[in-house]
Amino acid sequence: MIEIKKYSDINDEVKMELEQMAKVAFAGVQIVKNTTWSTPHWVIMNRQDSDIAMYYNVVERKVNFDNTQIFVAGINNVITHPDYQGKGFASRTLKHTRDFIFNTLKAEFGLLLCGDELVDFYKKLGWHKFPGNLIVEQPEIGPIQWSSNVMLMPKSRISHYQEINLNGLPW
Q1: What is the number of other CB atoms lying within 10 angstroms of the CB of residue 12?
Q2: β-strand 2-6 against 42-48: which pairing, if any?
Q3: Is the pLDDT at 35 greater than 80, yes or no?
Q4: How far apart are CA 117 and CA 120, in angstroms?
Q5: What integer is the mean pLDDT of 135-155?
Q6: CA atoms lying within 13 Å on the CB side of residue 48
Q7: CA–CA separation, 149 vs 143, rounded Å?
Q8: Which residues form the N-acetyltransferase domain (predicted)?
Q9: 3-state DSSP helix/strand/coil percent for the chain, to nearest 5?
Q10: b/e map of 127-155 (b: 16 or more CB within 10 Å)?
């Protein structure tokens, strides 16, 4: 069962469970450990009985695509619990929530950051690798260029942009 909830409405127990799943999933990933991340606005969970089989967060924000402000839904922490990996939970949930991103939130793009090993997975789901520069903010540093993969899911068509500035922390 897929649930879409405001992050602020999630109780502390569920937040702790999600944080623990993220801690396990990203245990050895230095870029994740060394980055300050945005607080999400939404949590999308796919439950199997009472278990959270997988989840991801959504951050809503206006970002600059080559100096044009565009509203995006930023996807982060796409995590499947180890007991449910390889069973299609992430694929089904991401496909199912496309309507939420584009029709409910009215985003023009979905945008996510991922490691090299996940680029092909997202491409199969209709995401496109962004070849340009991504600028993110980090406390005490200011704006920096993101050093990993950026994936875009367009609402209708993808245009050719050179730079995206998230106007804040990454998600």
Answers
A1: 7
A2: antiparallel
A3: yes
A4: 7
A5: 96
A6: 15
A7: 17
A8: 2-156
A9: 30, 40, 35
A10: beebeeebbbbeeeeeeeebeebbbbbeb
Task: Go through the domains of the chain in sequence order and give each one's CATH number.
Answer: 2-165 (3.40.630.30)
**85-89, 92-96, 146-150, 153-157, range with the lowest pLDDT:** 153-157
Q: Which residue has the tokens 């602020």?
A: 8
Shortest CA distance to 151 belongs to which of 120, 36, 63? 120
Predicted confidence at residue 123, as pLDDT, reads 96
- What is the rounded average pLDDT of the residues 97-109? 94
Residue 18: count other Cβ atoms within 10 Å of its Cβ.
Answer: 21
Q: Is 161 helix (H, G, I), strand (E, B) or coil?
A: coil
| Cα–Cα dist 4/2, whole Å | 7
Place of tokens 């089904």: 92
C-alpha to C-alpha distances, 171 to 1, 74, 111, nearest whole angstrom: 25, 6, 9
> Which residue, 129, 160, 164, is CA-closest to 143?
164
